């Protein structure tokens, strides 16, 4: 342990949460109730256990699975601090703690290698040498469980499809488009062939269309191979609602296009076999702090589980979901690997898809056996590698063709620059409007709500207000500060509703977003609506119709669960939603908080138009990718070492 100063120890403590410090005290002294060690005690060599525990807890609180023992980064970098007492010391984690192997040797009852955990189950920390991570034992076990689940599914032999299925497959996959874009059909084939598959793709690439065809194919398998229960889930109420709406529309379109002899078996089965999309928590029977009703000892009844918006699911919820699945349940994960990671610990979906990149540098890589079988069924040839196997290609398919964004669209242009070059556009490079924060950016924001203000003043009914406010949304990177969602909601509220209106109370014309699920009212976290005075003079809360073409739902405002004003939303809250146009506000902030994924998620919420309001210093700048430390890729690559 490198010699520390008291000033350094004091500066380090300022960055830790009370829960981090409590764990450090518990590991060092045996009880979290003991007083915090003095600064003098914290610079002694034996204090390494305190710092190990506190910093591992801190890393987990920052959504990492464990603490990365990196010799190249100073603690000032690890803590994202400009504190002079930290920067001047230039001490790395290895300087402070020592290597993982040294920790295991010096504190064998507290820190244990992953290989020795089962012989020392009382150890608080686990060291994984291949990823140089120190874990709290609970998080290591969850990551190892996930890795074991996936490896088990990858080792299972592929399902053989009968030769008679050729004509069925042809009827569902629209073969005329296969030469140009075979990946939707390949995704269906992968999911039919394996008990575990992943479909990733950006907005408009046809994930829901692909899943709809897949469900049709599953229900068209020979009797005895057909699933008896197909369940769709999503991590949030809003995402589940959008999944239901999108799937129902695609299902009706598919049924209308199918010949009668293909359509009729699906019509006869769908009400019995297909279950409406729900949240994962509802599917598992959430009991709040008491966990879930469904678990390994009481698994769900499900033959096929389709999980949408999988990138939003953290490690803990993934484990709860997998723990409740029957051994033979067929699992299909949908998501966009480029979107924001889950708010909680881990980056599971990106790690799962990234394993393929780690081996081959490509997601759409197939084994010869997969390509040969697919060609026999579809008459289409896929690129393949003789040694490609496991998670690559055969289980993961990336949909790359966007049917929403053309090369000339604002959103498509901006997304392409971000994807290809990892940067924001230069001024004049694209047709995307860029507004400098030094210019009249507030006027630009007000302009985006001008149409809404007009229809509100004209006295139009709630259905029109819902339609207009749903066409455009202001998205912010942060909640607080001058450029955060709270201040911008105040600004736009004053513009639309007038000065001095209290937006914490229901107001005529005020858009809102629901913050929690309410099953009794049929409301989900993330649902958006508007308060409007009806013809009888009553102020009601209106939300879009539950069914396409129906009337808006109305509620007494004070019956609603918690809600926030919603002229502007955080980018995180907008995940899973779509708008015709988005105005994205990127503030002057530390660039490590302004990630590539955050901006990509924001701009791809827009279907037709996007404009950026940002500081001049950000124009043309490359954006950092989110770095979530985990050992999941190493866990999945065990079979290839």
TrEMBL record:
Drop me one GO molecular function for this one. Answer: exodeoxyribonuclease V activity
Documented EC number(s): 3.1.11.5
Which organism does this record belong to? Answer: Coraliomargarita akajimensis (strain DSM 45221 / IAM 15411 / JCM 23193 / KCTC 12865 / 04OKA010-24)
Among CDD domains, the record links this protein to: DEXSc_RecD-like, SF1_C_RecD
Where is each AAA+ ATPase domain found?
193-364
Instruction: Look up keyword Acetylation and say if it applies.
Output: no
Gene Ontology terms describing biological process: DNA recombination; double-strand break repair
Keyword set for this entry? ATP-binding, Hydrolase, Nucleotide-binding
Q: What class of enzyme is it?
A: hydrolase
Protein's recorded name: Exodeoxyribonuclease V
Look up the domain of life of the source: Bacteria
The record's InterPro entries line, in alphabetical order, gives: AAA+_ATPase, Coronavir_polyprotein_1ab, P-loop_NTPase, RecD, UvrD-like_helicase_C
Q: Cellular component GO terms, alphabetically?
A: exodeoxyribonuclease V complex
């Amino acid at each position: 342990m490198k010699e520390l100063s008291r000033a350094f120890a004091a500066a380090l403590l300022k960055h830790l949460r009370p829960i981090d410090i409590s764990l450090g005290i518990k590991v060092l002294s045996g009880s979290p109730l003991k007083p915090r060690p003095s600064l003098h005690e914290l610079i002694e060599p034996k204090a390494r256990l305190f710092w190990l525990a506190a910093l591992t807890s801190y890393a987990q609180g920052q959504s990492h699975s464990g603490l990365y023992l990196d010799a190249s980064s100073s603690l000032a970098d690890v803590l994202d601090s400009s504190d002079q007492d930290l920067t001047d010391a230039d001490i790395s984690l290895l300087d402070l703690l020592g290597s993982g192997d040294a920790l295991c040797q010096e504190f064998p009852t507290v820190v244990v290698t992953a290989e020795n955990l089962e012989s020392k189950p009382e150890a608080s920390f686990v060291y994984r040498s291949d990823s140089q991570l120190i874990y709290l034992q609970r998080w290591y076990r969850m990551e190892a469980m996930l890795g074991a689940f996936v490896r088990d599914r990858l080792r299972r032999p592929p399902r053989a499809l009968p030769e008679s299925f050729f004509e069925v497959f042809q009827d569902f996959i629209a073969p005329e488009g296969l030469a140009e874009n075979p990946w939707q059909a390949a995704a269906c084939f992968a999911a039919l062939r394996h008990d575990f598959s992943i479909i990733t793709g950006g907005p408009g690439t046809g994930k829901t269309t692909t899943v709809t065809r897949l469900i049709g194919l599953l229900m068209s398998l020979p009797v005895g191979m057909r699933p008896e229960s197909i369940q769709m889930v999503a991590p949030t109420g809003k995402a589940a609602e959008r999944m239901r709406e999108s799937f129902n529309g695609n299902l009706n379109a598919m049924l209308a296009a199918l010949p009668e002899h293909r359509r009729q078996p699906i019509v006869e089965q769908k009400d019995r076999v297909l279950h409406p999309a729900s949240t994962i928590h509802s599917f598992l029977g959430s009991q709040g702090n008491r966990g879930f009703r469904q678990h390994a000892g009481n698994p769900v009844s499900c033959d096929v589980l389709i999980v949408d918006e999988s990138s939003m699911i953290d490690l803990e919820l993934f484990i709860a979901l997998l723990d409740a699945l029957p051994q033979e349940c067929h699992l299909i994960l949908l998501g966009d690997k480029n979107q924001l990671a889950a708010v909680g610990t881990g980056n599971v979906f990106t790690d799962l898809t990234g394993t393929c990149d780690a081996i081959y540098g490509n997601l759409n890589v197939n084994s010869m056996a997969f390509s040969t079988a697919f060609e026999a069924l579809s008459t289409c040839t896929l690129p393949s590698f003789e040694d490609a196997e496991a998670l690559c290609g055969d289980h993961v398919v990336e949909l790359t063709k966007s049917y929403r964004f053309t090369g000339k669209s604002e959103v498509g242009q901006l997304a392409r620059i971000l994807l290809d070059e990892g940067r924001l556009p230069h001024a004049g490079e694209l047709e995307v409007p860029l507004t400098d924060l030094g210019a009249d950016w507030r006027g630009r924001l007000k302009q985006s709500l001008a149409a809404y203000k007009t229809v509100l003043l004209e006295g139009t009914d709630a259905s029109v207000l819902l339609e207009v406010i749903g066409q455009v949304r202001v998205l912010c990177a942060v909640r607080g500060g001058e450029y955060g969602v709270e201040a911008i909601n105040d600004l736009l509220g004053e513009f639309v509703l007038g000065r001095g209106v209290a937006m914490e109370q229901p107001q005529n014309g005020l858009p809102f977003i629901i913050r929690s699920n309410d099953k009794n009212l049929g409301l989900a976290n993330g649902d958006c609506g508007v308060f409007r005075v009806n013809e009888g003079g009553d102020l009601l809360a209106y939300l879009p119709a539950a069914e396409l073409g129906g009337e808006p739902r109305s509620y007494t405002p004070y019956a609603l669960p918690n809600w926030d004003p919603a002229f502007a939303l955080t980018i995180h809250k907008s995940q899973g939603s779509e708008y015709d146009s988005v105005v994205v506000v990127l503030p002057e902030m530390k660039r490590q908080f302004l990630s590539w994924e955050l901006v990509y998620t924001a701009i791809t919420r827009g279907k037709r138009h996007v404009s950026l309001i940002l500081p001049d210093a950000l124009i043309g700048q490359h954006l950092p990718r989110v770095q979530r430390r985990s050992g999941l890729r190493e866990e999945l690559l065990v079979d290839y070492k």
